[in-house]
Fold this protein.
Amino acid sequence: MAAALNEGRPEDVMRELPEVGGTETSQGTTVQQLTAETMIINMGPQHPSTHGVLRLVLELDGEYVVSCRPVIGYLHTGIEKNTEYRTWQQGVTFVTRADYLSPFFNEAAYCLAVERLLGVEAPPRAQVIRVMVMELNRIASHLVWLATTGLELGAISIMLYGFREREVILDIFEMITGLRMNHAYIRVGGLSMDLPEGATDKVRDFLKLMPGRIREYEELLSGNPIWRQRTVGIGHAEVQDLLALGVTGPVIRASGVADDVRKTEPYCGYETYHFDVPIRTAGDCFARYEVRIEEMRQSLRIVEQCVDRLEPGPVMIEDTRIRWPAELSVGPDGIGNSPRYVKHIMEESMEALINHFKIVTQGFKVPAGEAYQPVESPRGELGHYVMSSGGLRPHRVHIRGPSFANLQAVPLLVEGSLVADVVASVASLDPVMGDVDR
Amino acid sequence: MGPAELAEQVRTRFPETLHARGEVTVTVAADGLLPALEHLRETEGLKFDFLSSVTASDWPDLDPRFWLAYHLLSNSFHHRIRVKVGAPGPDPRVPSVTGMFPAANWYEREVFDFYGVVFDGHPDLRRIEMPEGWKGHPMRKTEGMGGVNTQFKGAFIPPPDQRGV
């Protein structure tokens, strides 16, 4: 049965399975031979520690994992297919839902790819705000990782702390974009609207609050004997094997590879920000935890620089053939087009009205071509491959979700380990199933 | 090495090299795919040793109809290249690259699932996202989106391309 399950593994990364429970008895037979029956169990898709709907088919010999086969697809929502039926601008609202813990990264990658096809660039203020919301989003995403991983390994208090601070970030997002998740805030050509009054103050308050809180997490976990027992040396894999399987992000940086798209192929002006790429070399769950904690600190550094360099200016390109024809403001009944803009299109300019309806209902054309835009999401290289046939809709949008590639490494991490460590190993990859299945 | 220089260097070996918008695209024939990837991975100064993604697109009016795109990255030099391969429909086949890049395993399964492209030599070519019993390949342009039946009598929400505006 083991052979049947192992069929179809890439040969390069197949490891020799350890002789689990194979101690010799006095008769010369091994315990393995006496209890040759292995047990197949399903972990998931509704298991609380599988980060959504991941299903692992585990072949167990007692407490040890002989083989592991991840089964995905339970959260496939056809986001890529859907974008082919919507206008270019509407695509943002679809891709933002792929990796629901880091929506801004999906939006940014998609918009940067479309902007490259269009040959336009968002204004400087929009670029700075994009970086700011992305880095805040990275902290929020890592906090969810910390919280859920803590919960899965039995550290309940860190779960409460992680979600507590994430709530502060989501409040900021709600203030800026109107939504806590799936913002569709970054648009082709810029942003849907400028920062509201008081937003930077709120971000500054957060910058004061957060360093102490990160210290708290470290004091709670780094020296904690139970946390260390559950993570140190667990989920280790050789760095060449991880690279061969396409693993990126904090997981590969915890194995000593200093790859970060923000540094190697900067976008949105990342080359002008000062920040470090944290590296660890142990390549186990604990190293991944350390990398993520350090990344939160670096993100705070970047957010601080963003707030300092915010200059007044437009947040959407001027080209009326592309720009979203709106001027949003907050009225007594919520966010909507400002009275000034409504007066302009309804009373002053027939052309403005025609343009408004043309852009909103029909959209704009994008020159034929293809673009691949990688960004560094909290989970690794998120790449949007966008193809245009010159029409009003994308011909193809492919999302290279980092979780999809990282999840391929699960068998590598867990085969030969204890069942309990499967939870730690899977959690250390930080898979988001929306990103995997799309 | 910038994309322009990269394109120059690659063009000496692959005449169909395109440099556009800062990205380099190489088009090869299906039987030349494995040697091309081998060349890009092993050549000094190129070293494309990391496979970012494999995906496909469907162009019903073109021949070949299906176009595979392999996005490669060099871990040493941090430059990227896209290798494109055409596969004629309706029964498209290309060689699998899983032997060279184990990361391709799931990506090729996904392309098989969505587009019906068969990867010769893939160790485990099964559906990955769609249910096992699914008929057809949903990302093909010939397959529509499908609407939604609602609980209300006779009410049906048509797919987005058939809704009246």
Chain B touches chain A through 42 residues (CB under 8 Å). Chain B has a mean pLDDT of 87.
